[in-house]
């Protein structure tokens, strides 16, 4: 039995979603003192934070902070927060339901694109009766950028649906039924539908740009459920305007909510969804948060830690 390391654990809760869960967290772990940024008269007594939608500077007052539990899977904003000392451990949310939720979204838009839903929707608007041959999924190759928690689950579901699945990841990833490429452009070259599920890091920021779009097949579809900053918006608009890419399904954006003036809203070849590809539910996330806080309190190894130098 390990010794409790933090007898009086003080946790600051920051962010809209985290605040919604405040009472439930307190109830689930009564011996911990949860508080809002206004609660702590002395922020130096706070050792841990539970955060959603973090914004830089919000953690600056907590100089003795040792651990941040994110309610989001993507922790790019936290990793990039210059006010968070390098020794603060960050855990991301790995909720068992999120990959299932993401795979449902990805399967929905892959099937919709595969069956030319985007084309028929445009044609209906213009009352155009255009028959298009419908190949089976086994004749269609889907390329996955990122084969982590989300990408690997999506791969499994797409394979079950019959698609040819190829993928790209930083390190070699043996995944049954998936052809994994070292070379990004070689992967894009064979993919008719490309799904982005990469984390946002210095290496992946702006990856979806004119160069990568030109490596994609004419008529390819992009589904971006990673992060908005993976995409150079103007390059994507150009690839769509020139009909090199047929359609883009975008769930994430450089600025969220997507500004009303942005061309993505009205572009006939863009589908906009409001960052909802994989939502976290309190029911499944709460036990993950409580377990990690308990581990922190007891000085045990933490789950789902982010490699801060790698950036994800
Ligand atoms: P993981 O960390 O489990 O997986 C990330 C994958 O990306 C890994 O396969 C990793 O490679 C690969 N990767 C990272 N950097 C590179 C690189 N430079 N070149 C090639 N491959 C790279 O993350 P998740 O699957 O859990 O989540 C991925 C992202 O999805 C999150 O970071 C978040 O931004 C986004 N997301 C979006 C949501 C939405 O609602 N739209 C919801 C949840 C998450 P390797 O396997 O070698 O490490």
Protein model, in words:
This protein has 312 residues and is α/β, with parallel strands linked by helices. Helices cover 30% and strands 16% of the residues. The strands form two sheets. The protein has a seven-stranded parallel sheet. A five-stranded parallel sheet has the order 2-1-3-4-5. Helix 4 packs across helix 6. The protein is elongated and about 70 Å long. The two termini are 31 Å apart. The chain binds NADPH dihydro-nicotinamide-adenine-dinucleotide phosphate (NDP). NADPH dihydro-nicotinamide-adenine-dinucleotide phosphate binds at residues 73-74, 98, 146-151, 168-171, 173, 197-201, 203-204, 225-227, 251-252, 275, 277-278, 312.
Spell out the blueprint of helices and strands.
Blueprint: E1 10-14, H1 16-20, H2 22-28, E2 33-35, E3 48-51, E4 67-70, H3 76-79, E5 89-91, H4 97-114, H5 117-125, E6 141-145, H6 149-160, E7 164-168, E8 178-181, H7 184-190, E9 193-196, H8 210-215, E10 220-224, H9 233-241, E11 245-250, E12 270-272, H10 282-297
Parallel strand pairs: 1-2, 1-3, 3-4, 4-5, 6-7, 6-9, 7-8, 9-10, 10-11, 11-12
Helix pairs in contact: 4-6
Bound molecules: NADPH dihydro-nicotinamide-adenine-dinucleotide phosphate (NDP).
């Amino acid at each position: 039995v390990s010794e409790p390391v933090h007898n009086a654990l003080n946790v600051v809760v920051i962010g809209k979603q985290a605040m919604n869960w405040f009472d439930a967290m307190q109830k689930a772990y009564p011996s911990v003192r949860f508080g809002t940024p206004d609660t702590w008269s002395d922020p130096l007594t706070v050792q841990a934070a539970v955060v959603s939608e973090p914004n830089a500077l919000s953690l600056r007052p907590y100089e003795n902070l040792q651990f941040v539990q994110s309610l989001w899977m993507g922790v790019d904003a936290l990793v990039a927060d210059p006010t968070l000392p390098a020794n603060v451990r960050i855990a991301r949310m790995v909720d068992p339901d999120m990959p299932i939720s993401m795979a449902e979204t990805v399967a929905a838009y892959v099937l919709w694109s595969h069956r030319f839903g985007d084309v028929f929707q445009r044609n209906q608007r213009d009352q155009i009766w255009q028959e298009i041959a419908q190949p089976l999924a086994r004749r269609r190759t889907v390329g996955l950028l990122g084969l982590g928690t989300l990408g690997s689950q999506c791969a499994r579901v797409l394979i079950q649906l019959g698609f040819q699945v190829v993928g790209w990841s930083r390190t070699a990833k043996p995944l049954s039924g998936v052809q994994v490429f070292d070379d990004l452009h070689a992967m894009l070259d064979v993919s008719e539908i490309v799904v982005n599920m990469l984390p946002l890091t210095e290496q992946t920021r702006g990856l979806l740009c004119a160069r990568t779009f030109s490596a994609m097949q004419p008529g390819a579809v992009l589904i971006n459920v990673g992060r908005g900053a993976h995409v150079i918006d103007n390059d994507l608009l150009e690839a769509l305007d020139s009909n090199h890419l047929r359609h883009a399904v975008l769930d994430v954006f450089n600025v969220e909510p997507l500004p009303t003036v942005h061309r993505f809203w009205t572009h006939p070849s863009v589908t906009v969804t409001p960052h909802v590809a994989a939502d976290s539910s309190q029911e499944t996330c709460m036990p993950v948060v409580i377990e990690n806080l308990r581990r922190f309190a007891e000085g045990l190894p933490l789950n789902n830690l982010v490699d801060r130098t790698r950036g994800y």
